[in-house]
Model the fold of this input.
Amino acid sequence: MRRFFCALLALLLIGTAVLAAEEAPVGDYIRLHVVASDDSPAAQALKLKVRDACLARARALLEDCGDPDMAWAVVGGNLPLLEAAARREAQSLGWHGAVRAEAAVCAFPNRVYGGSAVPAGRYRALRVVLGEGKGHNWWCVLYPSLCLPKDVEPGRPVRFYSSILRWLRGWLGGEA
Done:
């Protein structure tokens, strides 16, 4: 009986978290979207280096922003600087193709960043396109910053710990 109530509690907690994520206002976020020229290994590596340059420049510009509308105004007002940072990084790596940065409203899928669920929707975004932009892309939440920390390598698994989940597993007879 105790396990039944614990399972019911777990389902309620999970359901509440999903509902909260679905109700999150998309206007509270500014996304970053970097699109590679193609799917070659070189283009994908270039995309990640350009991403790092854009993140560094954007973080410096957005650090004093108090709300998403202010952050959006800063992104729009600094597009030439953001595009220049992307172009400079791309050229330093031997890229001679087009680099375009724009402030746009783009569709994004459901995504979880750390413990924050960000629902699918149309978001304001800094969009950086390399060349024809026909390759795989990379995205994150630029404001408030939910992008990977600088010391976490893309593709490297990140392990999250939940004391509530561990407790529930113990009660339900699973592995703690």
In short: The helical segments are 2-23, 41-62, 68-77, 79-92, 163-171. The chain is about 45% helix and 20% strand.
